Amino acid sequence: MTGITIALSKGRIFEETAPLLKAAGIIPLDDPETSRKLILETNRPEVRLIVVRASDVPTYVQYGAADMGIAGKDVLNEHGGNGLYQPLDLQIARCRMMVAVPEGFDYENAVRQGARLRVATKYLQTAREHFAKKGVHVDLIKLYGSMELAPLVGLADAIVDLVSSGGTLKANHLVAVEEIMQISSRLVVNQAALKLKREQIQPILDIFAETVANTSP
Ligand code: PRP
To answer: Where is the ATP phosphoribosyltransferase catalytic domain (predicted)?
Structure first.
């Protein structure tokens, strides 16, 4: 396979990546938001996009099924980054990974008292690392979405989730009490592909880097 395959997910990541791709002269022939196709050809016959779940992007790149991909730091942290070269923070899809609790729950006090907290999250690895570093005792409960619901129905005391506008927390009477990390999307490249296809990959990396540098605040 001599062409380049780029893995990305629909929604915010695709929307915010489209201008970068365009700057690199890559325009998909179908719109991933309306097309059911999972392989999108582009105006450049040697470049194709594959549309995958956000959390699957690192896996496709790690195994070389995609040469490069775009994934959030949240997803990369959970994956571990094995076999992935991460040359560039694209500074898109920015948000924060936070600990949140119901309004009125005294998180600081519970932590001070050494309480054992039940925490619901999609991000087990990140949450485990965070609470271990803080010396907080937690039982982690894995969920796949709608984490904000868990404290409302007694499944958990707290959640670890992404916060962007804060609207979802507010609508569910939760408050963010701790920031775990700032999140943005990164470019990831398969390390073997980078060596074998450097002539094709490097120009794309260079244009992405230049575009990011020119558009960053
Ligand atoms: C994310 C996140 C929060 C929400 C935060 O969910 O998990 O629920 O967005 O955004 P806000 O602060 O602007 O309200 P998303 O809608 O991506 O769905 P998910 O549950 O599938 O991750």
So the answer is: 53-206
